[in-house]
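Why this split exists: single-chain examples teach little about how molecules sit against one another. For that reason, every record in the complexes split bundles all components of an assembly together and asks for one structure covering all of them. Below is a record exactly as it appears in the raw files.
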Amino acid sequence: MKETAPVDPADPAADRAADPAARPARSGPPLAPGAERYLALDLANSDLAFPGGRDVDLLGTPESAREWLITRELAPAETVLYDVCAGRLRALRDAVRALLSARVEDVVAPADAVRAVNDALTGAPSAALLHWDDVRGPYRAQAHPIDQIVNHAIAVLAADAADLLTAPDAARLTPCGATPCRRFLVRTHASRQWCSTRCGDRVRAARAYARRTQGKAD
Ligand SMILES: [Zn+2]
């Protein structure tokens, strides 16, 4: 099908306009409804698909994953991420997406996705650990700062996913109806089917185009 709507890439400038705070701008398009309240929904929506076969994974590299965490205030600005950290975030995202899909389809979720969220929930120590050596004696410290940051972020995201799935909002979860978009949203009203004005406009433009070409064929 011919794409009639303009292809608009992830536009960080739009976010900067909406969020004048000094914090670095969030990458990616405006949040889908619900993602402003649920970080887990924001996480699930971080693998973007645009018309024309263009994909943008906001967690695709350690640098982009770092930016994603910092702009969601899930990591301090000085954080350095490794590839394995970005990979863990992507793995959690896969699990959360599987859970959201199962909730939308009203089927029992895959056990490994439930397990992945529970592992993330329980994987972060809630307190600094006790250490003891002959120079300093007993003291408390984080075991490994980088691991701690990522473990903490993953635990927060997993807890949020569990909250979302068990909240009344879960009944209004839906995937965006605009191909090829794969974002989820929490419907703000019963008939809402699109994650964004852009996706809605694209579907309307495609329908109008189909009507025009249908008219010519008759
Ligand atoms: Zn969409």
